[in-house]
Amino acid sequence: MDLKTLGCLIVAYFIYLLLGAAVFSAIEGPIELQNCRESQRILDEAIKNLRNGNLTENRLRYLVETMALFYENGIPLSQNISCENRNWNFQSAFFFAGTIVTTIGYGHITPSTRGSRAFCIIYALLGIPLFAIMFSGLSALFGSALKRVSTMLDNKEMHPFIQNLAIFFVFVSVGFLLFCFIPAVIISAAEQWEYSDSIYYAIITLTTIGFGDFVAGDNPHMVYTPLYRVMVYFWILFGLAYMATVINVLTERFRQRGLSIKKRLTGYEEAEGENGAENGQPTHSKTSSNGEDNISRENNAPNETSSLKNHSS
């Protein structure tokens, strides 16, 4: 895939994400805003009843069940948090659309209406193949660079197995440095997480496991800039491409190594057969050819006898 085609695919991919973000935010945003205000109204009423001593058992049960339902849908339950579309504003919806087509699927927010769920199904069925095509081109771009580096690291004096292990160590070390350790520093500072939690989040994300217990840009008490969310998504995109490329390059090297061993074994068997023939040991092919010669001689014997009789007469 040439760079022009890859560039067009990347542009089409991000246009697709923008389209998905617009639809999801338009469907889910007003519903989230309504539920958030309702949760805050119920919470204010419960606090008022508690102060007045009017909080009955039934009211308390209703409060707990309602708050649990809102919490499961990602609705903030604190009076200090604004209800301005925290989960389903355009930025969050863009990030959510990206988790669909990359199949990470954190699960921290989910569509709540039939319409948005139906759209999510169609969006995934069309978006995942688009991402796969674009992703293969991006991985090929990384792969050509890594193959050049792999060629530079080839050492004729080193055992091939040790050489492959060394290349594996270099690629994995560079990958962890560029896409895990360094981004974890930035994410840890932006999210106020422990550094170990940021490392955990990076690895879980780039392996597409996506538990959803840690999600960058999802803290309701934090104010995130659009640039930060864009950087996080580009980090995920290029990190996934690098990890896939490293696996492909190393798999190809070990496959070529296996073919080389197979050729050596085949050459060894052929050499053994030639040595046996030189030492006077009959082989199957020679035996069969001798048998064919004997049969042809037997078939020609009557013809030779008849020709001798005709000659004598």
How would you sum up this structure, described in words?
- Residues 281-313 have a biased composition (Polar residues).
- Keywords: Ion channel, Ion transport, Membrane, Potassium, Potassium channel, Potassium transport, Transmembrane, Transmembrane helix, Transport.
- The chain crosses the membrane at residues 7-27, 88-109, 121-145, 165-187, 199-216, 228-250.
- With 313 residues, the protein is an all-alpha fold.
- It has a single domain, classed as Helix Hairpins (Orthogonal Bundle).
- It contains 8 helices and no strands.
- Helix 1 (3-52) packs antiparallel against helix 2 (57-72) and helix 5 packs across helix 6.
- The longest helix has 53 residues, at 226-278.
- It is elongated, with a radius of gyration of 35 Å.
- The termini are far apart.
- The relative contact order is 0.08.
- Mean pLDDT is 80; it is low at 283-292, 294-298 and 304-313.
